[in-house]
Design brief:
globular, 10 helices, mainly alpha, GntR_C, 220 residues, three-stranded antiparallel sheet, DNA-binding transcription factor activity, 2 domains, Arc Repressor Mutant, subunit A, Four Helix Bundle (Hemerythrin (Met), subunit A)
Length: 220
C-alpha cells in the first residue's frame, strides 16, 4: 500500500469514526475523489480496504455504504473486545518496561486533563493513546494487531459512549484502577478491570442504544 493510499484510508476511516460519514450513508466515489483531489481508482481501492475491515459494505451495482451494526452485533463485538483488552492488560502487567509504564502514566494524565476540561472529543483521542499504550505493553504483535483491528471497527460506538452523562468521569476512574494494577504487576486484576471497562451491559448498553440515533442522524 502506498503512503498516499494509506493516508486516504486513514482519513475516510476517521470521518466514519467521528460520525462525519454516518452508518448507512452512501459513499459516492466521485464526491470522495473530488474532496481528496484524487481519481476514483484510489477511492475505490480504499473502500475495498475499509470493507475488508468491516467499516464499509460494498453492495453489487449499488455502491458502498458505511456499515451499520445491530444491537446483537454490537454486544458480541464488545464482548470480544473486552476479552482482547483483558488479555493485553494481563500481559502488559507482566511485560511492560519502566519506560512503557511511564508512557501509560503520561497518557493517563492526558485523559485526566481532558476529563477536567469536559471535552469528550479530546478525551476520546487521549483515551485511544491510553489503550494503545496497554496494547504495546503486551509485547505480543499478533494480539496487538487483532485488538487494533476490532478497536477501529468499534471506534464510532466507543466515541459515542463518551457523550453519555458521567461517562467521562467513570471512564477515567476505571482507567485509574487499570493503571495501578499494571504498575503493580497484578495481571489478573488488570484483566478483570479492563474487561469490565470495555464490556457494554445493563445501563451502559441502554445508554448506547438510546444514543445510536445521534450517530445515524442525517445518513443518506
Amino acid at each position: 500500500m502506498t503512503t498516499h493510499s494509506a493516508t486516504l484510508r486513514e482519513e475516510i476511516e476517521e470521518m466514519i469514526a467521528v460520525g462525519e460519514l454516518k452508518p448507512g450513508q452512501h459513499l459516492d466515489e466521485t464526491e470522495l475523489a473530488a474532496r481528496f483531489g484524487v481519481s476514483r481508482t484510489p477511492v475505490r481501492e480504499t473502500l475495498i480496504q475499509l470493507a475488508s475491515m468491516g467499516l464499509v459494505v460494498i453492495r453489487p451495482r449499488r455502491g458502498a455504504i458505511v456499515a451499520e451494526l445491530g444491537p446483537q452485533q454490537l454486544v458480541e463485538m464488545f464482548e470480544v473486545m473486552s476479552e482482547l483488552e483483558a488479555t493485553c492488560g494481563r500481559l502488559a502487567a507482566r511485560r511492560m518496561t519502566r519506560e512503557e509504564q511511564q508512557s501509560l502514566l503520561v497518557a493517563h494524565q492526558a485523559c485526566q486533563d481532558a476529563r477536567d476540561a469536559q471535552e469528550p472529543d479530546v478525551y476520546y483521542y487521549k483515551n485511544e493513546l491510553f489503550h494503545e499504550a496497554i496494547y504495546a505493553g503486551s509485547h505480543n504483535q499478533f494480539l496487538i494487531e487483532q485488538t487494533r483491528n476490532l478497536y477501529r471497527r468499534l471506534r464510532p460506538y466507543r466515541r459515542l459512549q463518551l457523550r453519555v452523562r458521567d461517562r467521562l468521569h467513570n471512564s477515567y476512574h476505571e482507567h485509574d484502577g487499570v493503571v495501578q494494577a499494571i504498575v503493580n504487576g497484578d495481571g489478573e486484576l488488570a484483566a478483570h478491570l479492563l474487561r469490565e471497562h470495555v464490556m457494554i451491559q445493563g445501563q451502559r448498553f441502554s445508554d448506547l442504544m438510546a444514543s445510536l440515533p445521534q450517530l445515524r442522524q442525517g445518513a443518506a
